[in-house]
Amino acid sequence: MPITPLPDRAAPDSPQNPRHAVTELLRAWGAGDARAPEALVPLVYHELRRQAARALRREGEGHTLQATALVHEAWLRLDGQHDARWESRTQFLAVAAQMMRRVLVDHARARRALKRGGAGTQVTLGDANQASASPDDVDVIALDEALARLAAIDPRKARLVELRYFAGMSIPEAAAALGVSLATVGREWAVARMWLRRELEA
Length: 202
Description:
62% of the residues lie in helices and 3% in strands. By secondary structure, the chain is mainly α. It has one domain (19-201). Strands 1-2 form a two-stranded antiparallel sheet.
């Protein structure tokens, strides 16, 4: 189902958009209510666009995908999750991060194919809350492949990187999404970044 962009002023935590309403609509969607996705859009669009903007800023200059287009592509993939069991707003946004990762990687692969093997899109493994580039710049396709290898070893650390990088979640938000403590997320984020650096520099 296509979505219609809404003004950014409709923040998800405003009185008009209570989080419990998002959870109720997600559960209704998972139960097969065809009206739920349309009702959900005004409540989550702002946050999805914020996630998309963060992910695109970390790609640096030169990318051609816009935040609105990324949201739309991710939403189409979310809408195709017919067997999904939606449980909460946090879980939904985490899955949205997965969809955005796939869109960005597919887009990077298409661009690389057009360039016939040219340089890939650069992203940063630096502080996930910063938009500027850092010495941690890597190819987004190489990052995706490294994350797949990390997931085979430690799925939670791979999920954490995905939440921090592709969803732009803070440490507390990622901890809530993963159901672990702030201290655990802090430790695992540091370990995951070091592991990825080694993999990407090999």
